[in-house]
Amino acid sequence: MTDYSQSSTWTSFLKSMSSFSGDLSSLSAPPFILSPMSLSEFPQYWGCHQGLFLNIARINKENYHKLYPHAKTVDEARMLAVIKWFFATLHGQYSSRSEKGGFEKKPLNPFLGELFVGKWENEKLGDTTMLTEQVSHHPPINAYCLNNEKQDITLQGYSQIKSSFSKTLRLNVKQFGHSIIETSGGSFLVTVPALHLEGLLVASPHVELEDKSYIQSSSGLICVLEYSGKGYFSGQKNTVKAKVYSSMKSLKENATPLYVISGQWSGVTTIVAGNATGTNASKPTIFSDVSKIKVDPLVVKPVEDQHPLESRKAWYDVAKAIELGDMKLISQTKSKLENAQRQLRKEEKENKTHWKTRWFEKVDYNGAAKKNDPEDGNPIDGTYLSLVGMAGLSIKNVASGTKTGEKEDRLNKTADHWRFRKDLWEKDDEVIV
Ligand code: HCR
Fold this sequence. Notes:
The protein is an alpha+beta fold and 433 residues long. The chain has twelve helices and 18 strands. The protein has a domain at 34-292: Porin (Beta Barrel). It has a six-stranded antiparallel barrel with strand order 6-7-10-11-9-8.
């Protein structure tokens, strides 16, 4: 593998990073660290382990004991299925690109209205479609929805990041947004963890997750996931400890968890069940081994059949220039796209119009109960409010997983979240999956 760390372009890039503040997308980087993939493609990591994703909906009273012998109830089995799927998505989202000698690259920054659509085909279990849309440019926000009609499962959510460089040249990233899974057997709120990029000094960035994230089930069960990495003296990279409690109340009361799953989210984890840390705890057994789980590639239409707003069509020339490593061509092709965007914004301003999102709508959850009018095209969904309430998490626009009453929650006022409008997608005859 080429060592770029001593190259003059990298050292001057490091210098520009040390004094950088603001939107990461405006930071110009050397070609070898640029990815030809837009950030709008990232939601595919939620679905690229189709078996695990669809299992969440397929678990029922008849099969749950066979699939999860530890589970005492079907709800516990469903929660374990969500955790297993979540570990696989963590691997996809945060470590798959930097494995086997690879490293994290700077993805393309999606333009307002950018779309990325595709599907996972499965004759037996039915197709899962995925739609993503860049719903805001400043700040950048990407909304997504994955749906499998046959298994009656939907995952929707949105993602926004805020990043800053520390003095030691570590890129710290806070995530905003969440995912909601809905099935006929129950729903789940999934918050997303904070992270940082290590290895910038040696030109080999990779992600390490930090702090906590939550999975709240409509059954009341809650899972708290704690992340840590390799320290100077001890610790292992990508470490996770997931504790499942019967409710937020028992978590707060420091009750013994029902299950403790620990290990590496990018590798092997083990589970201890049955009053997990108590005297009658079971012996640890393998819970999941991410390296053995098959990745199902998303099927995306050829570029020539895509709508002009679809990501791979819109970024085609830039992606080719990145693959060639041609800095001049990268800058020319990128400027062409960015200037066209600037022109659009200018025209909107002149005409006093604004960009209308296609399939997603911003919903204001402040005073939600009052506004819940079913006559409205987009009634406020009770699912989110009920799950966020059970978990004691803030409904405001704060870092994902912030608790109610924490400083950020007290200081922030807005509670706007992006939600999928199935009716708008069904009416759309311009974009096909
Ligand atoms: C931090 C990151 C962009 C954001 C990516 C996010 C947080 C996006 C939402 C996904 O659901 C999860 C996700 C996974 C990625 O791991 C994370 C990216 C990793 C690197 C990238 C940086 C912007 C790259 C910066 C590159 C340097 C050289 C400045």
